[in-house]
Amino acid sequence: METIDWENLKDVACEVMQHAYAPYSGYPVGAAAIVDDGRIVSGCNVENAAYGVGLCAECGMVSELTKGGGGRLVAFVAVNGNREVIVPCGRCRQLLFEHGGKALKVLMPHGVMTMDEVLPYGFGPTELNEVESAVKVDMPYALQENVQ
């Protein structure tokens, strides 16, 4: 992959963050990622009065990825309402791992890390397939070994 334009990706995340629906926390979040085919996908958080059903920005971003035909995320950033780079929550780390794999590059407040560093020992289809009684699942494209 060519050099990642982190500033442009952050600008996309900042733009979509302005559309966040965050009346309960007052904490808008925007997320953006580059897909392996060159597309940029993005999403913002959407809160709900029933707090547990709110959606993180990464959820909206992955929905856009899937709606657009899927693919593998190769670079990701999330920002807050101050346009600062933030760390994805635990649930979103798992979501990013599922759609970007270990090699996904994540811009963190202190620099770029791989998803394997952000979520060491990530849980995925490989772990499901190790349990004999579990339903066997095909390996998603983003997690296939030969995909870089």
From TrEMBL:
Example GO biological process: pyrimidine-containing compound metabolic process
Residues at which substrate binds: N45, V46, E47, N48, A49, A50, Y51
Tree of life domain: Bacteria
Binding site residues for Zn(2+): C56, C89, C92
Active site, UniProt feature: E58 (proton donor)
Domain annotation CMP/dCMP-type deaminase: ranges: 4-126
InterPro entries named in the record: APOBEC/CMP_deaminase_Zn-bd, CMP_dCMP_dom, Cyt/Deoxycyt_deaminase, Cyt_deam_tetra, Cytidine_deaminase-like
Catalytic activity of the protein: cytidine + H2O + H(+) = uridine + NH4(+); 2'-deoxycytidine + H2O + H(+) = 2'-deoxyuridine + NH4(+)
Keywords: Hydrolase, Metal-binding, Zinc
Bilayer-spanning residue ranges: none
CDD domains linked: cytidine_deaminase (cd01283)
Pfam hit, one: dCMP_cyt_deam_1
Gene3D superfamilies linked to this entry: Cytidine Deaminase, domain 2
Annotated NCBIfam families: cyt_deam_tetra, PRK05578.1
Family membership: Belongs to the cytidine and deoxycytidylate deaminase family.
Job description of the protein: This enzyme scavenges exogenous and endogenous cytidine and 2'-deoxycytidine for UMP synthesis.
Protein name (Swiss-Prot/TrEMBL): Cytidine deaminase
